[in-house]
Every structure is written in structure tokens, then in C-alpha cells.
Amino acid sequence: MSDYVSVTDPASEQEAVQRLKGIASRQAAAASRLNNSRQNSEAAELQARRAAVADRVRELAVMITPEEVRARDPRRIMTDIGRQFGVTLRDITGHSRAAPIMRARLAAIHAVRLAHPDMSVKRLGRNFGARDHTSILCALRRIERDGVPQPPANANMEAVQ
């Protein structure tokens, strides 16, 4: 059937309705074909992206050793940063606001955030002694504004010895 529509006036109202119904059904069929082809191409593209991500995950899983996985553990990162600053994990996760402990805590928050960029601030707060997410946001802003605190020189010397 052709998409051509006669220009002549229909002989009756019933004929006009029939023509309009024919036009509408042809347009619906064309729209359906177009939607199906779009959905098929989008589905194929999505499937290809998922396959690429799955391949990349498999590659990375082979590349990461168990030691590297342990090194990314937030508690281990906090302990290592604490050792550099001369404070304990308990100090970092505690409630003290003493300057040396605060510097170590900020450095630890930064290090954990770098190791786990996908970790939510709420979860970061839970790792740092049940802190509220707004406290972590404040710490991240402070790090952005002032930079990452560096361990004092005497704490580095103790860590070396």
C-alpha cells in the first residue's frame, strides 16, 4: 500500500473517516518500526558497554594482588597515617580535637578518600568513629582549602627508627 493520499475531496464523510483511519494506521506502523529499531540499537549499545565493563573488571581483578586489597583497607590506611603522625588508630577515630590528632585525622580522611573515591561520605564517617557525614564534608572542604596536612618532622624520624 502506498503512502500517497489523494488530494481530491472524499465523496462522503464515511470515506473521509476511512482515509484518516488508514493514514493513522500507516503512521502508527511507521512509528513502531522506528521505535523498534531505536530500542534495538540502544539495547545493543548498552550490551556492548556492559561487556566492555565486565572485561575491564576481569582484567583488573587479575592485576590486583591480595596485598594490594589489604593495603586499601580503610583501617589499615588510618593506622599507617597515624603511625606517620605519631598517633594511634584510636586517636584518629576518637573524639579528641587536639591539633596533632586533627591533622592526622584530616590526612587519613584524605588518604581513604583517594583509595576509595566511590565511598560515600556517610560511610567515610562510619569508618572514622561514627562521625556525621557533615563532619566529613567539612573535613574534605578544609583539606581542599588548606591542603593535606603533613606529618611533623619528629614523627617521621621516629617512624624511620
TrEMBL record:
Gene behind this protein: dnaA_2
Coiled coil (residue ranges): none
Residues in the signal sequence: none
The name this protein goes by in its record: Chromosomal replication initiator protein DnaA
Span of domain Chromosomal replication initiator DnaA C-terminal: 73-143
UniProt source species: Methylorubrum suomiense
Superkingdom in the source lineage: Bacteria
